[in-house]
Amino acid sequence: MRGGRRGRYLTEEEKANKPEVTLELVKRIFSYLVPFAPQMILVLVLIIVSSAFSLLPSLLTGRIIDDGLIGRDFNLLVKLIGLSFGVLILSNLIDVLNAQLNTWISQHITLNMKTELYYHLQYLSQSFFSTSKQGEIITRMTSDINGVQRVVAGTLVSFIQNVSLVILALIAMFQKNWILALLGCVLVPFFILPTKYVGKRRWELTRIAQQKYDEINQILNETLSVSGQQLVKIFANEEMEYEKYERTAKEMTELNIKESIAGRWFRMVMNVFTSIGPMLIYLVGGYLMIIKGNDQLSVGDITVMVALLGRLYRPVNSLLNLQVDLIRSMALFTRLFDYFDMPIEIQNSPEAIVPANISGNLSFENANFHYSEDKEILKDISFSVEEGKSVAIVGPSGSGKTTITNLVVRLYDVIAGAVKIDGIDVRDLDLKFLRSSVGMVTQETYLFNGSIRENLLYANQNSKEEDLIAACKDANIHEFIMTLPQGYDTQIGNRGTKLSGGEKQRLSIARAILKNPKIMILDEATSSLDSISESLIQDAILPLLQGRTSIVIAHRLSTIMSADEILVLKEGRIVEQGTHRELLMKNGVYTELYETQFRKALDEHLEIEEKKQKVG
Predict the structure, then answer these.
(1) Could you tell me if 308 and 184 are in contact, meaning their C-beta atoms sit under 8 angstroms apart?
(2) What are the tens digits of pLDDT across the range 275-318?
(3) Mean pLDDT for the stretch of residues 505-521
(4) Are the CB atoms for 187 and 309 separated by under 8 Å?
(5) CATH architecture of 22-176+321-344
(6) If you average pLDDT over every residue of the chain, what do you get?
(7) Concatenated DSSP letters for 246-299?
(8) Residue 542's Cα: distance from chain center in Å?
(9) Average pLDDT over residues 373-389
(10) Which CATH superfamily is domain 362-615 in?
């Protein structure tokens, strides 16, 4: 386990979650090998040839002893040693060729799986990404698929190689002498059983020690950081933390000692059995030659049997551990196939419509939506926004405002009813055309780790330099960009960490302007910003909305009041609809929101303006 190595034994969790190995699963796994069938056959042939060649030096040892040394034929001795050396070199060259070919096959299989899975993930619905853990998705794309390479290059090849070695070694042993061959087969378990017992014991100790090691790292990370040390000192817990560290470190030391001692006992036992095996072969062989007068058995033959016995141990031991590798391999493929089998819920209609152009008339007709049947999100939503007009949506948190915007671009599809653009159901429109016709600026701006230019061009790869500059000027961000050392080529860090919230938001607006959509969606684009940033963004929003059909979700009264119509959502329903003045006169939900949220924001805004005037 330590150093990232996997144990040769299954954990309790692995035992509990063992996949069901079915013929269908095996066929599906081998379907990834089919395109590389010629190369796989060549690998199989090379493995068998290499295994045979690797046994030849052991077999030639008999002739070296009988014909060369005992027969006192020096020329033959030189030839046999030269032949053994040549076979050894050839066997290793075949192994190198085989390793290269096997690496090529395994790399291309994983390449196919990676690209296929990445493509599949790109088209899964937004609900998959909102409910799945990001780390789990990355693990599937990286370590799990890389594990496939280890299965092909390691487990599969190792199995074939070990089976070949065992079969060829047994054939050679029985050809020499069936009695000594049977004795060799009886001795094999004496090599294996100590290995499995002590190996399992060492693995358990190593696993527990690794857990303690993780505990120590956790203690160090928490208590030796700046914030951690401050907390320890504030609560005067230095002694407590020291005792915790000392106790854990002692436990880990004791486990390390046990592991080391177990390893030494293991080596001692193996040395004993390694010596006993050949001794028994020599004893029985000597008995057959000396006492029974077996003329068909020579000293060289006995030596060959001893050498072949040693060649049997490693492959047999590996084959006995095959169950562990097999279960882990099946679990690996099962996890990957779980992702491959996830349905792509948002798909193009077989007869998807690609209009020459759209005007941007947007309507919701009795739209209903839920993530799960026991909790409705939107209920019977109906409203329309004419070309070039804007609608603001307000309501308490969790009322379904953002869900409405997600339905427009088909991040989700309605459960009932319809969302239409120019009278066409969005589910009938070509998905790429639909999403290229709608722009979104969200509260949480996402920027890629790259330059400002690269992030802007993500909206439109064909944009020219003057287009970038014009969009950034409209978004009130151009002047700031020009103050940076590398201008538009400035790297902004992961998720734009080198920029402030307001700068990221204005960059997002510039990106939306470059897209030049017919329909624009603003989802709380000015929320959680300081007054200066908000003012700059409000100015940037004006050219973004001009002449476009727009849906605006906002907490700022000024943004809401500029809309042609306001929708008030509560518990997934439109409970009020009208202009700012009309809604205030109803003295309903909007009035309550105005008094509790918008009025306060407006008073703060007016107070800031008064201070500015006084300073001026």
Answers:
(1) yes
(2) 777 788 888 888 888 888 877 788 888 888 888 887 777 787 77
(3) 88
(4) yes
(5) Up-down Bundle (1.20)
(6) 82
(7) HHHHHHHHHHHHHHHHHHHHHHHHHHHHHHHHHHHHHHHHHIIIIIS--TT--H
(8) 41
(9) 90
(10) P-loop containing nucleotide triphosphate hydrolases (3.40.50.300)
Mean pLDDT on 499-520: 86
What is the distance between the alpha carbons of residues 550 and 388, in angstroms, rounded to a whole number? 7
% the chain with pLDDT above 90: 17
Q: What is the pLDDT of residue 316?
A: 77
Q: Can you name the residues that pair with 585 across neighbouring β-strands? A: none
Q: What is the pLDDT of residue 3?
A: 39
Domain ranges for the chain: 22-176+321-344, 178-296, 362-615
The residues near 113 (Cβ < 8 Å, ≥ 6 apart) are 32, 145, 148, 336
Please check the confidence at residue 15 and state whether its pLDDT lies above 80. Answer: no
- Indicate the pairing of strand 362-372 with strand 416-421: antiparallel
| Gap between the Cα atoms of 432 and 256, Å rounded | 59
- As a whole number, mean pLDDT of residues 563-586 equals 90
- Give the single-character DSSP code of 353: B
CA 585: distance to chain centroid? 55
Q: Which residues contact 36 (CB under 8 A, 6 or more apart)?
A: 105, 108, 109
Give 323 or 441, the one with higher predicted confidence: 441
Closest C-alpha among 189, 106, 108 to residue 150: 106
CA dihedral 28, 33, 37, 42 (to 10 degrees): -140
Closest CA to 456 of 510, 407, 411: 510
Tokens 């097999």 sit on residue:
326
Contact 126, 12 (CB under 8 A): no
**What is the H or E stretch that residue 129 is in?**
helix 126-131
The per-residue pLDDT for 378 is: 93
Nearest residue to 564 via CA among 540, 589, 581: 581
Rounded-to-integer distance, Cα 506 and Cα 474, Å: 9
CA distance 19 to 26: 12
Among 575, 526, 530, 523, which Cα is nearest to 550's?
A: 523
245-265 mean pLDDT: 80
> Letter for the amino acid at 470?
A
The β-bridge relationship of strands 565-570 and 390-394 is parallel
228 vs 78: CA distance, rounded Å: 72
Q: What's the mean pLDDT in 483-511?
A: 86
**201-238 per-position pLDDT tens digit:** 666 776 677 678 778 888 888 888 878 888 888 888 88
Question: Quick one: which H or E segment has residue 417?
Answer: strand 416-421
- Collapsing DSSP to helix, strand or coil, 50 comes out as helix
Q: Which fold has domain 178-296?
A: ABC transporter transmembrane region fold (1.20.1560)
How many Å apart are CA 298 and CA 589, to the nearest integer? 104
Query: pLDDT value at position 2?
Result: 39
The rounded distance, in Å, linking the Cα atoms of 28 and 113 is 12
Find out whether 572 and 542 touch, Cβ atoms under 8 Å: no
